[in-house]
Structure formats: C-alpha cells, structure tokens
Amino acid sequence: MAPRIKLSASLICANLLNLEKDLSTLRQGGFDYIHFDMMDGHFVPRIGLGTFFLRQIASGQHMPVDVHLMVTDPVRYVDEIADAGGSIVTFHYETGQDIYRTIHCIRNRDMKAGIALRPFTPLSHIEPFIDYLDIILLMAYSPGTTGQSPLRDFEGRVAVLAELLGQRGQEHIDIAVDGGVSEESIPKLAKKGANFFVFGTSGLFMPDRNLDEQIDRIHEIIKRL
Ligand code: DX5
Ligand code: ZN
C-alpha cells in the first residue's frame, strides 16, 4: 500500500516577514509539515535556519517540523533538534559520517529518520540502511539553493527508488522530493512513487500567486492523482 500524499512547506522559501499568517494558512490549508532547512555553510555554501528558530516554529503548534540537515556533521545537531521540537530529521548520505549511528541517534530521540541524497549519488549507497529509515529524500538539484531546474529524468530516479523499496517490501518508507516541485511535476513524480512533496518557490511561495489560492491548486492536483 503506497503511503498517502504528504505536503511539506519549505520555510526558507516563505516570506519570513509574513510568517505567522502564512503558517496558519498552511495549517488550515491541510499542509502536513514545515520543511526546515539547516545548512552549515560548509556542506553547502549557504547558511540556513537555526534551532533557535526551530524552537519557536515547533512551539507554535503549527505543523510538525521536517528538518533537512545539509551539514557536514549531522549527528552533532540531533539532540539540539529533538530538544527544539523537530519531528523528522533527514541528513545527507554524502557527509561520509557514520550513517547507522546517526540514524540510531535520531530514532533514539523519538524522531523519524531519513537519508537525503544529492542528485547523482547512486541509490545503491543507501541500500544497507533502508530497513532503518522512515523517509528517503531525493534532491532534484544540488542542495542549498532554491528555484533551480531539476536534473533530467528526476522522475526516473524516483521510479528506481520506488522499485528498490518495493523489492524489499519497504513501500511504507516515504519517498520525498525536494527542489523544483511544481503543479506540472507533482503528477509525474507521484506516478513514479513519490508521496512526500517539499514545496518551495516553484510550487507554493510564488510572488505572483496568493498562498491560499496556490494551496487550493495543489489540492486540486492531488485529488486528480
Ligand atoms: C532545498 C530546500 C528548498 C526548497 C526549494 O533543500 O528545501 O530550498 O525545496 O524549492 P524550489 O526549488 O521550489 O525553490
Ligand atoms: Zn530541503
């Protein structure tokens, strides 16, 4: 049974000066998670959001927070994220750190654990860890940026991951897609097996669109899947 569609709004793409209102709009609009990008300026060039901010967001009883760690030493942040109220922690395979230990530390703090992959990291690299994961996040382009074009045949990569999970009887693991998620790409990605959509500037926080209307458009598309 494929997991249900989950919607996660990428905070770093929101208008932070309008955040309280937008978070309520997202919650009332049926979004499931707030996507929280933590970046250390080392694993990716950009500096992201900090746990002082996560604590405020999580305490606001908005939506559970899905933390995307784009940092060189992910395990270092696990307790801080748990203490600040994070619900899911996804970290990058490419850090080269102890993957199993990091997953164990996340789950030990009663958070869901995920591995994130840059666009060209072979899916085979995470096979040894699949049985310990709740979510796998595929980046459509290099992490740490926004509004880029997804890599060619990103849908194909989603399909290969879905096939891999199916072969192992792990269809319950969420397949998250992050970067370039738009009205056009949702149906194609869902058809290939993605069920957890991270929305940023391509499909949700769009300067020429009203947030309420955009949320309605997303639900219309999801209904037709
Ligand atoms: C990438 C981040 C966000 C967002 C990007 O890790 O999580 O920047 O998804 O979305 P787009 O590509 O739509 O701006
Ligand atoms: Zn992200």
Shape: globular
Biggest beta sheet summary: 8 strands, parallel, barrel
CATH level 4 superfamily? Aldolase class I
Low-confidence stretches: none
Portion of residues within helices:
25-40%
User: Structural class of the secondary elements?
Assistant: alpha/beta
Instruction: Name the quaternary structure.
Output: single chain
Strand order of the largest sheet: 1-2-3-4-5-6-7-8
Q: What is the count of structural domains?
A: 1
Q: What's the CATH C level?
A: Alpha Beta
Topology of this protein?
Blueprint lengths: L5 E5 L8 H10 L4 E7 L11 H9 L5 E6 L7 H7 L3 E5 L6 H10 L3 E6 L17 E5 L14 H14 L6 E5 L6 H8 L3 E4 L11 H13 L2
Parallel strand pairs: 1-2, 1-8, 2-3, 3-4, 4-5, 5-6, 6-7, 7-8
Bound molecules: D-xylitol-5-phosphate and zinc ion.
Descriptive report:
With 225 residues, the chain is an alpha/beta fold. It has one domain: TIM Barrel (Alpha-Beta Barrel). Strands 1-2-3-4-5-6-7-8 form an eight-stranded parallel barrel. α1 links the parallel β1 and β2. α5 runs parallel beside α6. Bound molecules: D-xylitol-5-phosphate and zinc ion. The site of D-xylitol-5-phosphate has 18 residues, from β2. D-xylitol-5-phosphate binds next to β2.
How would you briefly describe this protein structure?
This protein has 225 residues and is α/β, with parallel strands linked by helices.
